[in-house]
Amino acid sequence: MGRRNDHSREEIRELAILAAAKLVTEHGLAGLTARKVATAIGYTVGSLYLVFKNLDELILHVNVRNLDALYQAVTQAGAPHPEPIPRLLAFGRAYLQFGLEHTDAWRMIFEHRMQHGAERPPWFESQVNRLFGLLEAPIQTLLPQAEQATVVQAAHALWGGVHGICVLCLSDKLTVVKAISAQDLLENLMRHYLTGLQSEQRARVAAGD
Amino acid sequence: MGRRNDHSREEIRELAILAAAKLVTEHGLAGLTARKVATAIGYTVGSLYLVFKNLDELILHVNVRNLDALYQAVTQAGAPHPEPIPRLLAFGRAYLQFGLEHTDAWRMIFEHRMQHGAERPPWFESQVNRLFGLLEAPIQTLLPQAEQATVVQAAHALWGGVHGICVLCLSDKLTVVKAISAQDLLENLMRHYLTGLQSEQRARVAAGD
DNA sequence: ACCTGAACACCGTTCAAGT
DNA sequence: ACCTGAACACCGTTCAAGT
Questions:
Q1: Cβ of A184 and B153 within 8 Å?
Q2: A9: domain range?
Q3: pTM score of the predicted model
C-alpha cells in the first residue's frame, strides 16, 4: 500500500471536514471519531494525522464553518428590519432557531473544549467576535448618546443573555415548566433589557451627563 | 478473590461519588473515568457496575450534590438582602462566583448529557427547578400586581440570561474584549432587565390592566 | 453473596514499514 | 512522498469464575 496521491493535502482536509460535519449532524457529538471520519473519506486513521495535528484541530474547522453559517443566518434574519429593536429581536430569534435546527452543531461550537488547556486559534476567536459584534450597531442607534464602551458592554450582556436562554432550552433545562416557550423567554429578556437600557440612558442624559 | 464485605452497597456508592467528585475538581471532566474511580476507592471497575447502572448514573449523583452546593451558596448570598433587587443581584453574583470557583463541577452539571438520549431522573430535575424557583419570590415582590405566570416567566428569562453570561465567561468566549468583567456584564444585564420589567409593569397598571 | 480479572468492542495518537 | 497497518495506552461495560 501507500502512495495513492488521489487527493492533495488540502483536498483530504476538505473531505475530512465535510465528513466530520456530516457525522455530527447525523449521529451527534459522540458519533464523531477519527476512525469514522477516516473510513468515511476512504483513508486510514493515520492519514488524518498527516493533515491535522489532532482531532481538536479538525473539530475547530468544523466549528468555524458552523459558526459562519450561524452568522449568515443571524445577519439575514436581521436585514429586513432597519429599526434597532426589531432587528435585535430578529437576531435573537435566528440565533435560537439555528440552535433548535442544528442542535449538535450548535453545541459543538460552544461546548467543545481544547485538550490540555490549549488555546483556541485567533481565526476561531475572531469569528466569535464577529457574531457578537453584530449587536453593536443597532444598540448604538438605540443609544445615540452612549460611548463606545457602553455599547460594547450592552452588546455582550444582551448576547450573553440570549445565549443562556438558548443553552438552557437546548439542554432541556427550561422545558420543566411547560408552556414556557424559549421564543417567549427570549423576547421577554430582550424587550425588558432594551427598555431598561433606554430608560437608564434617558435618565443619564436628563442628568446632563 | 471475591467476597470482602468491607463495605455495604450504600457505602460503596458513597465512596464512589466522593471519589468521582474529587477527580473532577482535581483533574477536570476528562479525569473522571470508571477505572480511576474504582482504583481510588480500592475496588475493581466491575464493582462499580454492581452499584451503579453506568457512568451516567454516577455522574448524575455527583451533579446533584454540586447542584445542592450551588443552591446553598446562592441562597446564603441572597439572605442578607431583604430588598428584591439587591437580593437578585446577590443571587446572580453567587451563581457566577460558584462557576468561577468550581468551574469543572459547574460545567459538568450543565453540559453533561445522558447517553442514548436517556432522560434525567426526576430527583435531578427537581433540584434544577428549586434553583430557578429562588428568583420567583423577589420578582413577585418587585411586581406586586403581576400574575404568577408573569413572575415565573420573568424568573426563567432572567436566570437564563445570568446563566448565559456565566457560560460564556467560563468558556473564555467573553474575555476577548478585554476589560470586560463578567461581574459587570451580569450587573448590567440584571439591572437593565429589572428596570425594564418594572417600567413595563407600571405602564400596564397605569393602563388599568 | 460479593468481588475479581479478563474479555469485548471501542477510543486517540504514533510511526516503522511498504510502494 | 504518501499512505498503511499495527501497535500503544487508554476507554465503558459485561460476566464467568473464584472465594
A1: yes
A2: 1-52
A3: 0.95
